[in-house]
């Protein structure tokens, strides 16, 4: 299948085949489903004792780079929670290594890039010819795909999600050298060194498309593009510096034959522009009321979200009300995937996560 998104949306024959028996994939394509599909950002993470047990013996990167362990962590989380999709256990920054950018995860600090990329010469030196080295992610997907190859008791095929970062979010880690508050160096390059910025985003897109292709080949049904820090940009800057490379990334992943979910945080003012990338699904953060966000995006696009992950700490009655509010705002329209508005944080009570998934299933059954 090699369709532009608009064609895909109008072509009911091929979408019926593409959606198949997975309610998650069907919802991505805005096809009718028996109930709202649900999965959760960071569903495999430090809040979960099963993950911490594995983490005790391995670093984050060891888990990511060992297909046996990455697949096990992915499968355990999906089964423990009873969700409709499994996101492969990996990290946004893995493609940095074959590009020649060294990084590590420091406890409590997140990712650290020791020699940030700030000049045209440094951008020119980035490698785009070693994406094969990332095959361990595809190998993990293959294992997950094999594990979930037969339908579940309710007849539904679990969806398998591959993922990569978006140009802005990945470029910002490379340029800042880690997490950032004000993105000064990234914006300095965007505004002041157009040649470096364009070449950097071009190279990232080439690497990410090849990386996504490996994941699709291995069995990913959908690719989620994380633009976690896009909310740092005003609409004008997003349009001028990020829309084109992100649109190209989305189009080239869709040309692989899978729907694309495009997610960012703090994006209320960017939603209609993010829609212009042509993504099949836009992921909403929790700050924007879902109905309002969907209206900004337009009904010709599916949405994913958007419970506040911190609502998972609330008493049961409050949490259930919040879950209901998200479902009510979506009003059962085709094309809603229930999720959080950002990842589950450490310390979240596992039983509340499990209850949330159960409530979505009960309350949305049609
Ligand atoms: O089930 C899942 O969703 C887990 C798989 C996953 C990880 N990273 C593993 C991980 C996914 C989808 C990611 C993507 C990712 N990585 C994003 C986008 C998602 C988002 O939250 O917006 C980002 C921004 C990164 C970069 C990154 N990796 C940061 C900023 C951090 C530190 C933040 C923290 O929570 O400490 C990481 C580390 C990381 N990646 C952890 C996990 C489970 C936690 C650290 C650990 O286990 O040691």
Topology:
Elements: H1 5-10, H2 12-19, H3 23-28, H4 49-55, H5 60-65, H6 67-81, E1 85-87, H7 96-99, E2 103-106, E3 110-113, H8 120-124, H9 135-147, E4 159-165, H10 167-176, H11 184-192, H12 194-218, E5 222-227, H13 235-254, E6 260-264, H14 271-275, E7 281-283, H15 290-297, E8 302-307, H16 316-330, E9 336-340, H17 350-364
Parallel strand pairs: 1-4, 4-5, 5-6, 6-7, 7-8, 8-9
Antiparallel strand pairs: 2-3
How much of the residues is beta strand, in percent?
A: 5-15%
Radius of gyration: 19 Å
User: What ions, cofactors and ligands are bound?
Assistant: coproporphyrinogen III
Number of helices: 17
Main beta sheet, described?
A: 7 strands, parallel
Question: How much helical structure, as a percent, in the residues?
Answer: 40-55%
Name the average pLDDT.
95
Q: Encode the helix/strand succession as letters.
A: HHHHHHEHEEHHEHHHEHEHEHEHEH
Shape: globular
Largest beta sheet: strand ordering: 1-4-5-6-7-8-9
Give the tally of structural domains.
1
Output the CATH class name. Answer: Alpha Beta
Task: Please report the total strand number as a whole number.
Answer: 9
Low-confidence runs of at least 5 consecutive residues:
1-16
**Class based on secondary structure composition and strand pairing:** alpha/beta
The CATH architecture designation is: Alpha-Beta Barrel
Distance between the termini: 31 Å
CATH-assigned fold name: TIM Barrel
């Amino acid at each position: 299948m090699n369709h532009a998104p608009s064609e895909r949306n109008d072509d009911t024959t091929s979408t019926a085949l593409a959606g198949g028996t997975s309610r998650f994939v069907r919802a991505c394509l805005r096809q009718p489903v028996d109930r709202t599909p649900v999965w959760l950002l960071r569903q495999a993470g430090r809040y979960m004792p099963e993950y911490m047990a594995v983490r005790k013996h391995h670093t984050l990167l060891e888990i990511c780079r060992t297909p046996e362990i990455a697949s096990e962590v992915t499968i355990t989380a999906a089964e423990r929670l009873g969700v409709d999709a499994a996101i492969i256990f990996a990290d946004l920054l893995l493609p940095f290594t074959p590009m020649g950018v060294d990084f590590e995860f420091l406890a409590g600090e997140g990712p650290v890039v020791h020699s940030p990329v700030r000049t045209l010469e440094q951008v020119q030196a980035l490698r785009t010819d070693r994406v094969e080295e990332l095959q361990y992610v595809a190998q993990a997907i293959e294992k997950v795909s094999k594990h979930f190859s037969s339908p579940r008791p309710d007849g539904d095929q679990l969806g398998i999600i591959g993922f990569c970062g978006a140009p802005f979010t990945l470029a910002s880690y490379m340029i800042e050298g880690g997490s950032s508050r004000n993105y000064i160096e990234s914006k300095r390059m965007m505004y002041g060194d157009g040649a470096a910025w364009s070449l950097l985003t071009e190279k990232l897109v080439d690497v990410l498309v090849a990386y996504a292709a490996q994941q699709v080949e291995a069995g990913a049904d959908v690719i989620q593009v994380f633009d976690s820090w896009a909310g740092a940009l005003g609409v004008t800057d997003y349009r001028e510096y990020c829309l084109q490379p992100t649109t190209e990334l989305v189009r080239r992943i869709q040309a692989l034959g899978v729907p694309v979910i495009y997610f960012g945080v703090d994006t209320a003012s960017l939603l209609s522009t993010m829609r212009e990338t042509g993504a099949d699904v836009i992921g909403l953060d929790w700050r924007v009321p879902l109905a309002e966000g969907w209206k900004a995006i337009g009904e010709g696009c599916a949405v994913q979200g958007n419970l506040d992950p911190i609502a998972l700490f609330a008493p049961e009655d409050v949490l259930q009300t919040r879950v209901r509010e998200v479902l009510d705002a979506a009003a059962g329209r085709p094309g809603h995937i229930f999720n959080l508005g950002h990842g589950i944080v450490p310390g979240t009570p596992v039983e509340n996560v499990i209850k949330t998934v159960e409530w979505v299933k009960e309350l949305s059954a049609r």
